[in-house]
Specification:
Layout (H helix, E strand, L loop, with lengths): L1 H24 L3 H13 L19 E3 L4 E3 L6 E5 L10 E6 L2 E5 L7 E4 L7 E3 L2 E4 L4 E5 L2 E6 L1
Antiparallel strand pairs: 1-2, 3-4, 3-10, 4-5, 5-6, 7-8, 8-9, 9-10
């Protein structure tokens, strides 16, 4: 009888300890809620679509001329800063469609549409002028700011 009584106490204690250990491993409701809020506040990779649905993190930008998301570094002409003794880390890009050129500058939120009157003439918009000369020369006012081929 003593053996059965002692055996039932040992089994009861082991179940009790096992229950406490499993409860310790379970995250509390506050911990679970805090983890969910932290996950919700983090940016989702690829979740950065602009108003046109273009994903900037994947290198896509909206093109007014093409009317679609494009990767300007793949489908355009690259223009580098004009040599003025300074070192730059940015470039400009331009795509062409007939007598129109779409200019992508790092200083502008939106692209700029330049137009030309005829073949061989420069594309113009306000004080920007893209001149076809030994490749391309982009001027703002009288100052050459970018060149490229």
């Amino acid at each position: 009888m003593k053996k059965i009584f002692l055996f039932s106490i040992i089994i009861g204690l082991s179940f009790s300890c096992a229950k406490k250990v499993s409860e310790e491993k379970k995250p509390s409701q506050e911990t679970t809620k805090a983890a969910k809020e932290e996950t919700d506040s983090q940016a989702v990779v690829g979740g950065d679509s602009d108003s046109h649905g273009c994903k900037g993190s994947a290198g896509y930008t909206w093109s007014i001329l093409k009317k679609e998301c494009i990767r300007i570094f793949e489908n355009s002409t690259k223009l580098s800063h004009a040599e003025d003794g300074k070192t730059y880390t940015t470039v400009a890009y331009v795509i062409f469609d007939g007598d129109k050129a779409e200019l992508f500058l790092d200083t502008q939120k939106e692209s700029i549409i330049l137009e030309r009157k005829s073949e061989g003439e420069p594309w113009i918009k306000d004080d920007f002028q893209l001149i076809p000369w030994k490749g391309y020369v982009l001027q703002k006012g009288e100052k050459i700011i970018y060149t490229g081929e």
